[in-house]
Amino acid sequence: MSTPEVHVRRYGHGSRVPGWDVPVDLDKDPATVPDPATTAVPAELRATIEGFIARYPDRRSAAIPALWAAQLTHGWCSPEAIRQVACVMTLTPAYLAQLVGFYDMFEEHPVGRHQVYVCTNISCSLRGADALHQAFREAAEGDAHFNIRGFECLGACDIAPMASVNGDYLGPLELSDAERVVRALQDGGEPPPGLRLGDRPNAGLTLEAQRAGDPGRGTRPSGGGDQPDRSDQGDPSGGASASAAAGSDASSGQRDPAPDESPDAPDDPGTTGQPANPKI
Question: Which of 164, 183, 257, 262 is the most exposed place for a label (fewest CB within 10 A)?
C-alpha cells in the first residue's frame, strides 16, 4: 500500500522565511543608547527600574519588569516609554522593542485603562469562555476605557471560566457577571465582592492584606469565618514558635487540651481550623 505524497508549502525563493538572505546594511549607523541629557524619565519610573536592575547580576534580566513598569506609567509601551526604559537600563530601544513585540501582555498601541483578559484556553473554553468573552465585549461596547481581549491561558483552570480584570483573577464567572463587572468599573469601583480569587476563603491572605505589602499580617479566612492573625501577640519572637507549634499540631491532627478539658474530649470544629498558608 503506497503512502500518498504530501506537498509542503514553500516560499517562492526557498523554504526559509523571507529576508533570511538579506545582508546587514553595514552603512547604517549602529544603534545607540538614548542620551540621559536629552531623554526625560519620570523620577518614580526611574527609581522603579533601578530597583529592578539591582536585583539581578545582569541588568538585561530586568527588562521585562522594567517595561511592565513603563506600561503602567504610560498606559502602553509607546516609543517614548521604550526610550525611557532604554535610557535607564543603558540598552538600545531595539533590544527592548523586540521583547514588547514578542510578549502579548505588552501593548504596542494605546488601549483602555481597564485591562480585561478573558481566558479562552481548553478548561475555560469547555465551560463557556467564548460566550463570556462576547458578554464582556457587549457590556463594554463603545467605552474606550476598556481593553477586552481573549487570552490563550491564564493558568487558573480551577476557577474556569475566568478573567483577569486589572490584574485581579475573577472566577468562576457567569455570563451575567460580565455586565456587573463592567458597570462596577465604570462607576469607579472594583469588581463585585465574591468574584475575585483573593476573596475566596482558601486563597490565604485577603486581597487587602496582599495589597498592603505585608504578607505576615492581615486577616486570614479560616474555617467558618475571618480569623485575625495573632503572630505578634503574646510572643516576643514575633509568633514564630506559635506558628511552628500550630503547624505541627495541624500536621499531626492533634492539639493540646484546654485546662478545663479532658484529653479525650472531641475537638470543637469552630476553634481548631488549620492555619492558612500565606501565598508565596
Answer: 262
Q: Which has more pLDDT, 46 or 246?
A: 46
Please say if the pLDDT value at position 277 is more than 70: no
pTM of the model: 0.60
**In this structure, how many other beta carbons lie within 10 angstroms of the beta carbon of residue 50?**
14
CA dihedral 65, 279, 189, 229 (to 10 degrees): -140
Angle at 157 between CA 184 and CA 134, to 5 degrees: 45
**Cα end-to-end distance, the chain, whole Å:** 58
- CA of 275: how far to CAs of 132, 219, 223, 249, 263, in Å? 35, 11, 9, 10, 22
Residue 11 has a pLDDT of 53
- SS3 (DSSP) at 219: strand
- At 129-151, the pLDDT tens digits run 999 999 999 999 999 999 999 99
104, 105, 65, 111: which is closest to 88 by C-alpha? 65
- Return d(Cα 35, Cα 84) in angstroms, integer: 10
The answer to whether 162 touches 150, Cβ cutoff 8 Å, is no
Q: For residue 119, list its beta bridge partners.
A: 151
Q: How far apart are CA 165 and CA 139, in angstroms?
A: 14
Compute CA distances 5 → 2, 16, 263, whole Å. 9, 21, 79
The owner of cell 536592575 is: 53
